[in-house]
Design a protein that fits this description.
The protein has 442 residues and is mainly alpha-helical. The chain has one domain: Hydantoin permease, CATH 1.10.4160.10. The protein contains 19 helices and no strands. It is globular. The relative contact order is 0.20.
């Protein structure tokens, strides 16, 4: 069976950006900022994207293009079958993320209608608690997943690439317009102060909490540690510069994440909401309350949640493609059969998260702070120490050689390895404390 490829280079870049630009940027990023010190988290996050995220994208890119396979099959194609468990960690991580990600996307669909009708105006918390779990949440989880399955069934060129070429520019334009609108709100000064004023004191005092959250968010928002970039790079030709592509993807993704903060914090401060309260649901409760009170709130609410739904879809199709590609590559399944079958399994796995908020939060915490760093840590070690020569050779394709390639390898061996490893250790320690296995240090 001939392997599919991207029709254009911009198609690959937009697909990778579309994967990165999703709920991680617009939903998860703001409440991570709110829960982890405001601008202190922003400083750490931006540093993590630059120093860890971009080099880590290249780690996945070289594996994917070199092997031309899915995250599990890649290790066999590279002649390193004994390391296939690393790919399995990535695929399982993506599977768990997709199972609850589509539940959140279902909430977004419900909020589009709620914004248009004003259904949650004046009862934001009660509305969210009503729709977040239960039968309706399961149905909307299924609806969103069905749309995702439909696009992935069409393949790389006719499905994913065509979809992201329309979706990603639309997301950027809509967010830019909303950011301009946010400038007119009463809370813009306080919101920007909270979001943008450097807070090094909080950063110094709480870095052990902020670092794992920032690294986890950087990995989540760049779709790293779950095999997406391995899978997407496996469809890339050898004439493309992976170094240039990785920088472009990280830059566009970070700009959109940053824009989401410029929108949401002025909105929250306009209604005197406290960023960080309420966990995952805070986003919907706080923003919903703001749309009830700010000028043109009904229209802005519809536009905002439509933007969020499109962003969520662009990410969901990439995660689903990771799992589908495994069954196509390794077992020769027809794309439509593999996509439908995986979609059904993801739907079933997501039902517990749709029925119980506690289960949902466990899914999010375990994947964001434990499985993503674990998968990335293992991939980094593999590229840096098991296949370093092959990795450097792959990085040189599509561009002229320079010392930058060797610098990247040693940066991955040192800074990225230590940072992701430390994040993993801190996350494991945090879980141990939370579940009473260890006492919290004074």
């Amino acid at each position: 069976m001939e392997r599919e490829t991207w029709a254009t280079r911009i198609g690959f870049i937009l697909a990778a950006v579309g994967s990165a630009v999703g709920l991680g940027n617009i939903w998860r990023f703001p409440f991570q900022v709110g829960q982890n010190g405001g601008s202190a988290f922003l400083i750490m996050y931006l540093a993590c994207v630059l120093l860890i995220g971009i080099p880590a994208i290249l780690v996945e890119f070289v594996i994917g293009r070199r092997s031309q396979r899915n995250p599990i099959g890649a290790f066999h194609a590279l002649g390193k079958s004994r390391f296939r468990a690393i790919g399995a960690v990535c695929v399982v991580t993506g599977f768990v993320i997709l199972s609850y990600y589509t539940v959140v996307a279902g909430w977004v669909l419900r909020y589009i209608g709620g914004s248009a009708t004003g259904a949650y105006f004046g009862s934001e918390e009660a509305y969210f608690l009503e729709i977040a779990t239960g039968y309706d949440a399961v149905v909307l989880h299924a609806v969103f997943l069905a749309v995702t399955v439909g696009i992935v069934m069409l393949g790389i060129k006719r499905g994913i690439e065509l979809a992201v070429k329309a979706m990603v520019p639309a997301i950027a334009l809509l967010l830019a317009g909303l950011a301009v609108y946010a400038l007119t709100l009463d809370g813009v000064v306080d919101g920007y102060r909270y979001y943008l004023s450097p807070d090094f004191a909080t950063l110094a005092a709480e870095w052990t909490t902020i670092l794992p959250a920032a690294v986890g968010q950087a990995l989540f928002t760049l779709s790293l540690g779950m095999g997406v970039m391995i899978t997407y790079a496996s469809y890339v030709g050898e004439d493309q510069s992976l170094l240039v592509d990785s920088g472009s993807i990280a830059l566009l993704d970070t700009v959109i994440a940053f824009l989401s903060g410029l929108i949401l914090f002025p909105i929250l401060f306009t209604i005197d909401a406290t960023p960080g309260d309420g966990g995952a649901g805070e986003f919907f409760i706080g923003v919903g309350g703001a749309f009830a009170d700010i000028p043109l709130g009904t229209i802005v609410g519809v536009v905002f949640f439509v933007t969020l739904a499109v962003a969520a879809l662009s990410s969901a199709i990439s995660i689903l493609e990771v799992i589908v590609s495994y069954f196509i590559d390794e077992f020769g399944f027809d794309r439509r059969v593999a996509t439908f079958g995986v979609g059904v399994i993801v739907f079933v796995a997501g039902i517990p998260a749709a029925l119980d908020m506690g289960t949902f939060e466990v899914y999010d915490q375990v994947t964001g702070e434990l499985l993503l760093p674990l998968g990335m840590f293992l991939l980094v070690l593999f590229v840096a120490w098991v296949v370093p020569e092959e990795s450097l050779d792959e990085l040189l394709k599509g561009r002229s050689g320079s010392n930058l390639d060797v610098f990247w390898l040693w940066w991955v061996r040192t800074v990225v390895t230590v940072a992701v490893g430390l994040t993993l250790v801190l996350s494991v320690y945090g879980f141990a404390v939370e579940f009473g296995l260890l006492a919290e240090s004074a």
